[in-house]
UniProtKB/TrEMBL annotation, chain A:
Lineage, uppermost ranks: Bacteria, Pseudomonadati, Pseudomonadota, Betaproteobacteria, Neisseriales
The keyword Cell inner membrane appears for this protein: no
Keywords of this entry: Heme, Iron, Membrane, Metal-binding, Oxidoreductase, Peroxidase, Transmembrane, Transmembrane helix
Name of the featured protein: Catalase-related peroxidase
Family: Belongs to the catalase family.
UniProtKB/TrEMBL annotation, chain B:
Annotated InterPro entries: Cyt_b561_bac/Ni-Hgenase (IPR011577), Cytochrome_b561_oxidase (IPR052168), Di-haem_cyt_TM (IPR016174)
Organism classification: Bacteria, Pseudomonadati, Pseudomonadota, Betaproteobacteria, Neisseriales
GO terms for MF: electron transfer activity; heme binding; metal ion binding
GO biological process, any: respiratory electron transport chain
Listed name of the protein: Cytochrome b561
Species name: Silvimonas terrae
GO CC annotation, single: plasma membrane
Amino acid sequence: MSPPHSPGLLRRLSGVPADAPLLVPAAVIGLTAVGLVAAFCFAAGWIGPERLGPKRIINTFNANFGEHPGFRRNHAKGVCVDGYFDGNGNAVGLSVASVFGQNRTPVTGRFAIPGGNPAAPDAGGPVRSLALLFQLPDGQQWRTGMNNTPVFVVNTPQGFYAQLLATAPDPKTGKPDPAKVAAFFAAHPESAAFRSWVKTHAPSSGFANGSYYSINAFKLIDGHGGERYVRWTFVPDTPYQPLDATQKHPADFLQADLQTQLAQGPLLWHLQLTLADTDDITNDATRAWPEGRQVIDAGTLTLISAAPQQGGDCRDINYDPTILPHGIAISDDPLLAARSAAYSRSFNKRTAEEAAQGARS
Amino acid sequence: MKEAIYFARPLRWLHWLMAPLMVLMLFIGVFMVSTVSTWHNRLVGVHKPLGMALLVLVVVRLVVRWLNTTPRLPSTLPRWQQALAHGSHWLLYGLMLLMPLIGWGMQSAAGYPVVLGGWVLPALVPHDVALYATLCMAHGLLALVLFATVVAHLAAALFHGLVRRDGVLQSMTGQARRGRS
């Protein structure tokens, strides 16, 4: 065997003593480094089996609705509202959250319609949403994102992703392919409850006279650590009127009507806490709890003003429903973590776009 | 001044306590943002308090390091490796300090309350989404730099321990020196 060309120089430059072993240590060091990097890439999801992550969900929203820089990827069209919540003390025995005491908590909210198109017509679908941020005096917050339907279409993040794929617009018609949508409903029988509810409950004529439901279950925690599963509903004082489907509505009628109503005076909702019985299912947003559950009126939400979301107080808020004060906690509903992860991704993208737009202007 | 052979005992403890926690933290960080499973919330719930704990530990560590003499690198080590060693160590300290501060700052800039145990921590910076966008990007990019530096640091430690056998690895493990000195 011939000796290597200039062992002395290479070893001297790399600080390797002349008699030091090389092959085995090099293998140990190399395998350690490569193994660690590979494990890291695996943890991040860059290699290995495809996993359902926020990136894929948010990218699919972009694919379905187009790019709308600076806007939320879902519920992109909305309006900011401001007001306060007056607790009445009825729920203090159930939760230590200060919002339930006999006091006033400032609220920053947002009404919206689903979908990633910020210019969608308001009458395009039956679903509306109300998101609220309660700013508690000690710096804690309660954030909630609610819909005007008590149940959700699906009960898993995978189901939600399947629905997104199935409702992608057909390039030929610009509308979802009915066959794909039908196939999705057939493959997801849990969606039947949502569909039948929407069929039998016409949406309200405006944002102001709609009820808004927490959809997911949560937990209330009392001063002794006792837990009760809960769903909440904001029930309007303004009487419900079904939307007149025979009439043609302007594209922004929900926002315009809200502005008109608020100009006449504040709008009120009652917070109703529905407590689960011990056997009620808490991890399935497609299943409502049976009638007859204990309901507690915990206080009144008063909204006093509205403002366009561009420049409004709600624009820079991520209504992540897992941001909760002490006394309220997430349940075992798998949609909650998915909402948190996906909302966060949407927030990261739109704030980066907003910052870039700000830098350009 | 007495020549130090080993890092002071508290520094060695802090090093071996923080090293696995930091690696865990980096893995948790990249994993938690990649999934919509319930691991997301569970791990975010670990990431934040663990980051705060690491912030406290690195401050203690910097103080302890300031108060103690540290072993010198062997004079036989090539100049470029000495420079790399010093540079990478200050990069590690800097990132160990910056990462939790940026993490805390980005939470504040996003308007999220930073709650630790029963306490609401003060916001480091005001609610400002443009600032949030910058901090968020920095947190992600610096995490990759930190991970790369940690891997390089580990490889260099093994190089000292397995190839050069010059006592540099032992200065942190506290083991008696074997072989050449």
